Amino acid sequence: MKKLALISCSLCVFWLSACSGGEENTSSSTESEETVEESKEAQAESETLPEQDDSEETEESTETEEPEYDDTEPLTGEGTNDISPYRPMAVMVNNHPLARPQTGLSDADIVYEVLTEGDTTRFLAVFQSEQPDEIGPVRSSRGYFIDLAEGYDSLYVTHGWSPEAKQMLRSGSVPFLNGLFHDGTLFKRSTERQAPHDSYISFDDAMEGLTNKGYEVEREVNGNSFEEGGFSSAASSQADEVDIWYRDKYVVQFTYDEDDQVYERSSDNEETIDKSTNEQVAVKNVFVVEAPHRVVDDKGRRQINLSTGGEGLLLQNGEALTVQWKNEGGRLLPMKDGEEIPFAPGKTWINVVPSSSGITGSVQGIE
């Protein structure tokens, strides 16, 4: 600032001298010219030096170090210094329109979305890296959801069961907690909802109930395969806005957010909001698989073949890759030319659609 004031004063002196002395005052003119030259040099110096300092400060401020972690979350592939000691917990979450918005979905590492009766899907939300204070509404189980939970060696939480699911759980296929026997104690009813869309439980309460039943709740978790940046393939297609239809009655939408590099979920043209955060649910990976569906009773219950594999579609980073899916120890995983395709680090949403419509008949928006 002092240098700039000196420059301004010098210029004023030069201008006044020139006006009062005319051409005859050669001495004053020469002195003024020298002063101007000095001022120019000072100005050049004062302009140059701060620019170098500001540039250095800017460069330093934009340089960010990548955080270093000791471990990796097994079901998201994200870095962490504190891996949860618990086994995954797989919770049946209601997706009836009267059950929305749900609570806790944004904390799930993996969500399976599968048809139950009619044209409405239900969620199996798998929690391991995060333990939400509230999950729900919790709904009843079906046999194929138990199979999917078993693939992650999960503790299974449900409120009710179908005859097939009851037989499977009673046989000891997976450790489970059923709200039918803990209604109003571990499972709480919301006054804002009507049954059967009003049952909620916290992670801690579920763990308490499972521990009291004598189950082993802590165990090392086998992780999925992840690769930073996701798949890299010239065979991928652009996939910024993707619709997944179920029997032409119900549609799930995933819109790619390029800034956050995630897919934001909606259904029936309404954003999927997590009631606990009031934010839209977003994931890094969307995996669509087609599987044979068959109605088996007069209630419209289904059997779904999730063991033989088939066609699939994997969405990452605004791109879609046609793949196959394989059941590997109960986990549905993407494959390409016999090789497993890694997930991008982050959360994953898996949509199972009927093979009668298939990927081509169910998915729209792939360019």
Automatic annotation (TrEMBL):
Domain of life of the source: Bacteria
InterPro entries reported in the protein's UniProt record: DUF3048_C, DUF3048_N, YerB-like_sf
Region: Disordered, residue numbers: 21-86
DUF3048 domain sequence ranges: 75-215, 244-350
Keywords: Signal
Keyword Signal: yes
Biased composition (Acidic residues): 48-73
Signal peptide: 1-20
Protein name (database record): DUF3048 domain-containing protein
Organism expressing this protein natively: Salibacterium salarium
